[in-house]
Design goal:
- By secondary structure, the chain is of the alpha/beta class.
- The chain has a single domain, classed as TIM Barrel (Alpha-Beta Barrel).
- Helices cover 43% and strands 16% of the residues.
- The protein contains eight helices and eight strands, in the order βαββαβαβαβαβαβαα.
- The radius of gyration is 16 Å and the shape is globular.
- 51% of the residues are buried.
């Protein structure tokens, strides 16, 4: 299991990075992205600490750790600057909190995230075909999520992304231990979203390719 979207108590999660990584390893995860919520108020505090923790934990963990950030509820014109700032601070995985139907995210966030060169748009809600096509062109991943509430639009995201040829990945958006899932549960979530059985391995491969491409930048034992 590879999960590119999780949270610690550096934002609204309940676990320290060390415990999150250990629990992920115990659950069979081969790689995990730590992507705490950031905006202009806390990005300089959160990202360097996630980077530092990831580097130190890597010496003792068999699970590859990718330090990142999830830019959250930021006005679209500010997203590009924060994506660049997160990378400058050492984030190897930059996620933008997409237009989930479970929260009042500003319209235009999905498009700004894709145009900014973020790695992934999390739970992109009722994403348009135009934005999905742009995501394909720019290599931006779109998320299918097991997270309650955000998962309500999984079917739409899957349908539009597959039609556009955009890369899909499956993540948990974990905030607590019980949010971590098995590979079997991941397959069930993808099937429920309308992903054909023959395409499920491709979605897992998209996550693996990101980890492999991140390569030397991922923190690993």
């Amino acid at each position: 299991m590879i999960d590119l979207h999780t949270h610690t108590l550096f934002s609204d999660g309940v676990l320290l990075p060390a415990e999150l990584v250990q629990r992920a390893f115990t659950a069979g995860y081969t790689a995990i992205g730590i992507t705490d919520h950031v905006d202009m108020s806390n990005i300089d505090f959160v990202v360097p600490r996630i980077v530092e923790a990831s580097k130190e934990l890597a010496a003792y963990s068999q699970t590859a750790i990718i330090p990142g950030a999830e830019i959250t509820h930021v006005p679209p014109p500010l997203i590009k600057r924060l994506v660049e700032r997160a990378r400058a601070l050492g984030a190897r995985l930059v996620v933008v909190h997409g237009e989930t139907i479970a929260e009042p995210v500003i319209s235009g966030t999905n498009r700004a995230a894709i145009e900014s060169g973020a790695d992934m748009v999390s739970h992109p809600g009722l994403i348009s075909m135009e934005d999905a096509v742009l995501a394909r062109e720019k290599g931006v991943m779109l998320e299918i999520t097991s997270r309650k509430g955000h998962s309500l639009s999984n079917g739409h995201v899957a349908k539009v992304a597959m039609a556009a040829g955009a890369k899909l990945v499956l993540n948990t958006d974990a905030h607590s231990p019980e949010d971590l899932i098995s590979i079997g549960r991941a397959k069930t979530v993808l099937s429920a979203a309308g992903i054909p059985e023959e395409s499920i391995d491709t979605i897992f491969a998209n996550s693996q390719k990101f980890v492999d491409t991140t390569g030397r930048n991922a923190c690993r034992k």
